[in-house]
């Protein structure tokens, strides 16, 4: 809203201020003189008023590498000089930024769904015991994975300077997505009489991440990417429409999380290329877990791998055929992972372990 007194001559302005302060002792109208930009004019489009529409003048993102002020104040506002400097960890733009954050945030708002209303739970009928138990085992594992996938980025929300609030807003939607995934997979384990199973170690190694970019590399680039492939396979091996939609909608959410991670890492590599070796080291260790450990990989730990094979083959009597499908999915996970690395600008072909090279192909 524009200041209704802005056009008053200076002498009348001073008289007005003196009169108000005389009639109301102790009043301080200094906020009327704050030198922030006014007069922004915007038009709402068919999708409403979006973040990118109001990101103009000093309220938009600029090219500077550091937050404009140390105090805790919204971008474009004038900070109170009496307030202490912000204690957040990330005041450097490259640590948390991605150009896609605004778009992904708006998409997340539009595509929220309800595990209570949007899944046709009544399409789930009795299943053979091996298929029901396998689906419950897979969904128990995914319940744990999604809990961790929400818990990990949640630890970093308060560490992002408000100058870069778009990344913070997106991560807020991711927490909601992961909560819904946890919810929907837990419901599937219980609705048809199966119940929870052993979860395995899942993705517990992600809980040790103590840096935003490390978290993004491990959670978004690797974890969310591999789980997205798993969700797509879940839609193919689903036994009913409820399971199909459960996996389809979850994969849709994962695509946003994955896009956030890839574009953040791409921005980091482009603006701070000296961090490439740091990222290579992080991925060296993670790939070792994915290819060598039988307890932490999404597809090779005994619980998840066997459950997927039973579901893929159509029953325990078709376990061999099921394992062939699981291995095709595993290959797809690594091929897609290698493609994401190319998009980011991280050439890891010479650093891939032999097991990874075998999966992605020598010419990839």
Report on the structure:
56% of the residues lie in helices and 0% in strands. With 364 residues, it is mostly helical. Helix 6 (165-191) packs antiparallel against helix 8. The radius of gyration is 26 Å and the shape is elongated. The N and C termini lie far apart (56 Å).
Q: Work out the radius of gyration.
A: 26 Å
Helix fraction by DSSP (H/I, runs of at least 4):
55-70%
The count of helical stretches stands at: 12
Q: What's the β-strand tally?
A: 0
What is the arithmetic mean of pLDDT?
85
Report strand %. under 5%
Taken in chain order, the helices and strands follow as HHHHHHHHHHHH
Outline the low-pLDDT stretches: none
Molecular shape: elongated
Largest sheet: none
Q: Which structural class do the helices and strands define? A: mainly alpha
Distance between the termini: 56 Å
